[in-house]
Write a structure and sequence with these properties.
There is one protein chain. With 536 residues, this protein is of the alpha/beta class. It has three domains: 4-188, Dimethylsulfoxide Reductase, domain 2 (3-Layer(aba) Sandwich); 194-381, Rossmann fold; 425-535, Beta Barrel (Barwin-like endoglucanases), CATH 2.40.40. The chain contains 19 helices and 21 strands. The protein has helices at residues 4-7, 33-36, 38-49, 79-92, 98-104, 108-114, 120-127, 131-142, 153-156, 161-174, 194-199, 216-226, 238-246, 260-263, 267-276, 333-343, 353-363, 446-452, 461-467; strands at residues 25-29, 53-57, 70-72, 105-106, 147-151, 185-187, 206-207, 211-212, 252-256, 279-284, 296-299, 308-311, 316-320, 380-381, 405-406, 425-430, 456-459, 474-479, 482-490, 498-502, 530-535. The strands form six sheets. A six-stranded mixed beta barrel has the order 16-20-17-19-18-21.
Length: 536
């Protein structure tokens, strides 16, 4: 028997992008899909034009609401109450898949009891979403057996992010919407090779292929493969490293392709921690805000300047080919890592990135059948255990790998920080269409800067009227951690009492004021909810 966390632990889509067009119902929660994943959003719109019903649950009226059958504008941090109420209605109205539950799940009665009190009326008081909208969403999703759930960091970047995902997964197994084409639980990855990095073991508690560091059998396997003795201890996550550096427990950091000064919460705290280090190396393609603090900067190559593979959000391993020569002294990440390893006394003897992929396949059977020859023209989705295997468009066709999957009982918990008299507004953060992540690439493009180069805060018309704010006013937004100044954008996209700030702009970095409280399980910060005040 496997837990939901184990089943969906890879963070990859269970199904394929292609299958979206044939879905009957698309449930989008915590994802501004049209702006942050426009290619996937276009597939969703094609499904809509074929007759699919779209449900959108988000604190903002994001662009996909234009195509939605049901819009659930919930208060930030109340996802569990909303999802549990939808599960409550599905169970009460008999919309669940009894055969699937009996054959492939455990813990249904316990889960049923856990959502018994979470009526639409109860959830309405917590979420602000009307009982009628909750019931409609439950009937639409529960009434289909070709329904997919799509989410991003809108539900993961909370202190209860793990529980949010488990609650969403409950809906899929409650209705049997998994293990078949055009169904599934589909997290959308936010960067081009996040999936590949996770697959390859860039996680503090896992070896490549999601194999646990603290498992003696797994450790023995990798010790044999690599010819070294390995530690049984789990490492620190990114969000644990910064407090550890501040406390003097970490003396040095090696940061690759990341800009934590902009992307980590409570930025003043992050900068203080990085400055306290004895030594910091940053490996990146540009001189970022983080690189500016480094003792050594190693210039690396961008995607167009190197060979290798990327694995995308649907588990597809794809070739990346060198198109141009790198500038100056820039070198590929692999060559830099090999050189540093050699100087530290361990020789890495890879003639090319293809050698790395072949080794990867030897320690993780799910990609054993993927070779450069096979992905010369088109990528292959893992699992792909041998060179005769075509790849796997969707997971769990033949059941779950460890037997039955267990429902989760997910109690509702309040966000770590709520609005109060001193800080009466709730801030939520995210991205916009034009800028990308910390802006280290997109903010160097004059055309993008001309169109979307100014930081802003979205505020509702009612709140702007109360505070005598008009479009373009300069505002100070403050939390318990700091303050930033930026321009007002009055819009009905946000709820009364809620404001939204995109995270791309270093001159008004949203993460100066966000909360660094962490999810206890996966250590992701609560970027999506914090209490703030507004001053002109």
């Amino acid at each position: 028997m496997a837990s939901l966390a184990a089943i969906f632990g890879s963070g990859a889509m269970t199904n394929s992008i292609r299958e979206i067009e044939d879905m009957e119902v698309i449930f989008i929660i915590g994802s501004n899909t049209k702006e942050t994943h426009p290619v996937i959003a276009n597939r969703m719109i094609k499904a809509f034009r074929k007759g699919a019903k779209i449900i959108v649950a988000d604190p903002r009226r994001v662009p996909m609401t234009r195509f939605a059958d049901t819009v659930l504008n919930l208060k930030p941090g109340t996802d569990i109450a909303l999802i549990s109420a939808i599960a409550h209605v599905i169970i009460k109205e008999g919309l669940f898949d009894k055969t699937f539950i009996d054959e492939k799940t455990e813990g249904f009665e316990e889960m049923k009891k856990s959502v018994e009190q979470c009526t639409p009326e109860y959830a309405e008081k917590i979420t602000g979403v009307s009982r009628e909208a909750i019931i409609r969403a439950a009937r639409v999703y529960g009434g289909s057996r070709k329904a997919g759930i799509f989410y991003t960091m809108g539900i993961t970047q909370h202190t209860c992010g793990t529980e949010n995902v488990n609650a969403a997964a409950n809906l899929a197994i409650l209705t049997g919407n998994i293990g078949r084409e055009s169904t599934g639980v589909n997290p959308l990855r936010g960067q081009n090779n996040v999936q590949g990095a996770s697959d390859a073991g860039c996680l503090s508690n896992l070896y490549p292929g999601y194999q646990k560091v603290d498992s003696p059998d797994v450790r023995a396997k990798f010790e044999k493969a690599w010819g070294v003795t390995l530690s049984h201890k789990q490492g620190l996550t990114t969000t644990e490293m910064i407090p550890a550096a501040l406390a003097g427990k970490i003396k040095a950091l090696y940061i690759m392709g990341e800009n934590p000064v902009i992307t980590d919460p409570n930025a003043h705290h992050t900068v203080e921690a990085l400055k306290k280090l004895d030594f910091m190396v940053v490996q990146d393609i540009f001189m970022t805000e983080t690189a500016a603090l480094a003792d050594v900067v190693l210039p690396s190559t961008c995607f167009a300047e190197k060979d290798g593979t990327f694995s995308n959000t649907e588990r597809r391993v794809q070739r990346v080919r060198k198109a141009v020569e790198p500038p100056g002294e820039a070198r590929s990440d692999l060559s830099i890592i090999m050189e540093i390893s050699h100087r530290l006394g361990y020789t890495l003897d890879y003639k090319s990135p293809e050698d790395v992929l072949l080794e990867f396949g030897k320690v993780w059977p799910n990609i054993a059948g993927i070779t450069y020859r096979r992905i010369e023209k088109e990528g292959i989705q893992w699992p792909c255990p041998d060179t005769n295997h075509p790849g796997t468009p969707y997971l769990y066709k033949n059941g779950f790998p460890k037997g039955k999957v267990r429902f989760s009982c997910v109690p509702y918990t309040n966000p770590a920080e709520e609005a109060d008299k001193e800080y009466p507004f709730v801030l939520t953060t995210g991205r916009n269409l034009y800028q990308y992540h910390s802006g280290s690439m997109t903010r160097r493009v004059p055309q993008i800067e001309a169109h979307a180069g100014q930081a802003y805060v979205e505020i509702s018309p009612k709140d702007s009227e109360k505070l005598n704010i008009i479009n373009g006013d300069s505002l100070a937004i403050s939390s318990r951690r700091g303050s930033i100044r930026l321009k007002a954008r009055v819009t009905s996209s946000v709820l009364e009492g809620t404001i939204f700030i995109p995270m791309h702009y270093h001159e008004a970095a949203a993460n100066i004021i966000t909360n660094d409280a962490l999810d206890a399980t996966c250590k992701i910060p609560e970027f999506k909810v914090c209490a703030v005040k507004i001053e002109k």
